Amino acid sequence: MNFDIDRYVASVAALDDSDIDYDDFRRDPLPDEALRCLRYMHDVEHHTVCYLRDLLVTRAHDDPVITSFLTMWAYEEFWHGEAIGKVLRAHDEIAGRPRIDAARARVGSGRLATLGTMFASVLTEHIVTVSLTWGAVNEWTTQAAYVRLAQRTGHPTLTELVRRIAKQEGRHIDFYASEATRRLENRRAQRMTRWGLSHLWTPVGSGVMPRAETEHLITYLFGDEAGAEMARRIDRRIDRLPGLSGLGLIDGARHDYATTGAVSRDAAHVGIGRARADDIQSAA
Ligand SMILES: [Fe+2]
Ligand SMILES: [Fe+2]
């Protein structure tokens, strides 16, 4: 699998939602369970620039192919967050900077982890392989989450919007998976990546969002049999990466986070639900 970076750079664009009628959501609103997932997706898409920072403190920043990709990747993810924000606003919900402020404040202490990544990268070049493989896993699960959200809601306008987002996630998958496959040919990189994923990986967004929100998202999108099959499909893709068979990461995350009790918890309890901007800020 070879990724053509020049072709990707030439084709990058902000998500085209010019013909999406967001007023459809006023006429036919989404259920609360789906909106709660979209709040999560909005916050995590807008957190991409912070993930970018964590990648750039590694030796990844020495590689112009990687930095070209990351530049475009962060741009595309930004517009995913903006599009989801429009869906939230069509439900009279807060979106954009107040929510982003709150997310950044919640993970303030997480900046120490950035220092850890920086020091680890000084010690070994294989941190780049760990990071890029981690990226592949997260892009696979993100794309699957959008597909499942469309399936669960059956909402035609949301389905079209997330289809376009998922298509761009597919190009991100192509990059991360191709880089991971190539770099994992190195046995030391394999061992380090296997250890890193099995001991440190958690579902995308779980370091940014309160645990109850991750539980809700995984329960709603991956809690049923169709979701379980999607999780197994991602695990099979991870299995095909050199040296990474049998990790069972995604099925493990389902068992760790999917709980029926979590679904009934009130999102407002953790301050990131249907709330005023002041409430969102104070929850941070
Ligand atoms: Fe995205
Ligand atoms: Fe992506």
Give structural notes.
With 284 residues, the chain is an all-alpha fold. 70% of the residues lie in helices and 0% in strands. The protein has helices at residues 5-11, 24-27, 32-45, 48-56, 64-90, 97-106, 111-123, 127-153, 156-183, 187-200, 211-222, 225-239, 249-257, 260-263, 277-283. Helix 8 packs across helix 10 (187-200). 42% of the residues are buried. Bound molecules: fe (ii) ion (2 copies).
Order of helices and strands: HHHHHHHHHHHHHHH
Helix-strand category: mainly alpha
Unreliable parts: 261-284
- Helix content class: over 70%
Please give the radius of gyration in angstroms. Answer: 18 Å
List the helices and strands and how they pair.
Layout lengths: L4 H7 L12 H4 L4 H14 L2 H9 L7 H27 L6 H10 L4 H13 L3 H27 L2 H28 L3 H14 L10 H12 L2 H15 L9 H9 L2 H4 L13 H7 L1
One fe (ii) ion binds next to helix 8 and helix 9.
